[in-house]
Design brief:
Elements (H helix, E strand, L loop, with lengths): L1 E9 L4 H17 L4 E7 L8 E8 L2 H8 L10 H4 L2 E10 L4
Antiparallel strand pairs: 1-3, 1-4, 2-3
Length: about 100
């Protein structure tokens, strides 16, 4: 299984709008996506009010590629999200179970 960690920093002043998008659109979308075994969304904290994240566990690399395309390092960006986010990071790991 593949663990994908997706983190965003919102544009200043866009925290509330992104939070609505995150809860109303992004989380339901990811939970309904074929090939995702687990979705762990992380919302902003007082010490980092502009930072949000997803930890997603994908069944395999083929399932991840079916969602994002061949370049798995590129984000899957909703047009609404694009105007709210200042920066994104994506990292992938092989899931270690134990």
């Amino acid at each position: 299984m593949i663990m994908r960690i997706f983190q965003v920093t919102t544009r200043p002043g866009k925290e509330e709008a992104f939070s609505r998008f995150f809860h109303d659109t992004a989380i339901p979308l990811m939970r309904a996506t074929d090939g995702i075994e687990t979705v762990l969304p992380g919302r902003a904290r007082p010490d980092s009010p502009r930072d949000f994240s997803f930890v997603m566990v994908w069944r395999d690399l083929d399932a991840l590629r079916a969602f994002v395309g061949d370049d798995i390092a590129s984000p899957h960006v909703d047009p609404v999200e694009a105007e709210l986010v200042e920066s994104r990071t994506i990292r992938h790991y092989d899931l270690v179970e134990g």
